[in-house]
């Protein structure tokens, strides 16, 4: 079966010739219909930029190369007008901060209805009916009252529900969720993750969940891709990744969570901090912070090599002949 | 450790924020903190958890009198600091310091680190010739170097900035440190560095922490005792071990069950709370949690439960009456 979304060799850079910064390099992945992929990494690893590139929402100062195929359509070659027929209809996005991503001057009903008016050409009363249905579906009580409310009257959890309602209004094939629960309390987070799972099953929608929280990944994802400094470090099935992580970065990330240090008082740490694009080191980008570093790591960049079924890992530790070919997973 | 006299004792602390009031209208209040009692012993870490809007930050600020409490007493080392004048309070601030959430907003971007660190010293009239040694000492303690003194905040990463904030809070040698979401804005790998640093400093300097956080796993890691707040009140307080093993209050149970699991196949019963936190201007009658509670009884709608000793912990719930 052909995947719904295929991303091949995606490279994103910013700036002019002199100040060019390669923020994302050779990122390739795919997502099948109904599947959920988690993209995990710390701030500055390029995970949000990748999702914005898929939506073609990056500004004019960016350069995007590679291929992004959604349902056999090459998104990067579409004109802005053609892209508008896809955005909101075939793909939709939920942003991190529900407080700032809603228009404060429009009522909830109007904001959600806008997407449908744009894409489905429905009469007005039909749109209203659909919006009310959507609001009920995402678990908003008193939908007919909330329809006329403005965003500032709602709590964070409710606003995120409105964002979700807006995103699924046209039943997209692919939903990109960029840290959808980071700004929310755990109890509300549990509600929202539940809701996303329910919608995914009902619509057979693909979901890309961008998060820094491995707990969220364990809750909702089928497969995970770990990013560091603009590169994919490891991809694997969620169970494989969480139980037997391969890449030293994935291991370190898991060990530095407070949950992992229940017995001994000290937490494992990763020394130093994430490099910025102008200071990406030569060789493996994680080498200066890695606890299993070898001389070769500072000289040559390891390839993302296959490692078991559906898994791949970018690390010299797992490369016996030290020159395997890059693969697409 | 001085077991007989607690370092900090908070009795019946209340903070009500008045809302604008119309003519002939009874005044309305946001009851941000309501009747909170808290005892902290020297050298221990008390974690305060709760959803946003539950009053945990207000509680921290009231203890330092950064905002004036409406009612209640705060005893610090045997002195009632809540009745002190502004000048007298100034002296006590030396012993009680705060670390804030966002290291990007709490450092003045126009000041060099030297100026940022010397401000508390000047405010507390530390002789000028001691400044340099104090500043260098504290910077080394938090894992930075002497040459960082001449730099500006924007030259540092988020984790380093939080180290500077910690240095600023500790430079006067306080006894009590209130950390308000001190690691929430940081990435996991940096968060673990800062948590380790806080624990090392606690051992070296004999600090007492009031650790306010919404992140249960962080609180579980760092605290000795945990207090759960809901709508301005403490609903459960007890020893960390027993609390995380078997939370007693239905709200604590729901809160713990909402933490994402570590493994996709982990089978855990989840109590999903319905709705949001009610508005603190118009709290529900009886037990404030009864509308969202999965085991609410008739009694809960009318009668507010009091904190009672249950299994060595304090719990405010009619289930254990």
Automatic annotation (TrEMBL), chain A:
Keywords: ATP-binding, Cell membrane, Membrane, Nucleotide-binding, Transport. It is found in: Cell membrane. InterPro entries: AAA+_ATPase, ABC_Ni/Peptide_Import, ABC_transporter-like_ATP-bd, ABC_transporter-like_CS, Oligopep_ABC_C, P-loop_NTPase. Its main location: membrane. GO terms for cellular component: plasma membrane. GO terms for biological process: peptide transport. It is a peripheral membrane protein. This is ABC transporter ATP-binding protein. The keyword Transport applies. PANTHER family: DIPEPTIDE TRANSPORT ATP-BINDING PROTEIN DPPD, OLIGOPEPTIDE TRANSPORT ATP-BINDING PROTEIN APPD. One of its GO terms (molecular function) is ATP binding. Residues 5-254 form the ABC transporter domain. Belongs to the ABC transporter superfamily.
UniProtKB/TrEMBL annotation, chain B:
The keyword ATP-binding applies. Keywords: ATP-binding, Nucleotide-binding, Transport. SMART domains: AAA. Coiled coil: none annotated. One of its GO terms (biological process) is peptide transport. Residues 8-256 form the ABC transporter domain. The keyword RNA-binding does not apply. GO terms for molecular function: ATP binding; ATP hydrolysis activity. InterPro entries: AAA+_ATPase, ABC_transp_ATP-bind, ABC_transporter-like_ATP-bd, ABC_transporter-like_CS, Oligopep_ABC_C, P-loop_NTPase. CDD domains: ABC_NikE_OppD_transporters. It comes from the Bacteria. Pfam families: ABC_tran (PF00005), oligo_HPY (PF08352). Belongs to the ABC transporter superfamily. PANTHER family: TRANSPORT ATP-BINDING PROTEIN. This is Dipeptide ABC transporter ATP-binding protein. It comes from Brevibacillus invocatus. The lineage of its organism: Bacteria, Bacillati, Bacillota, Bacilli, Bacillales.
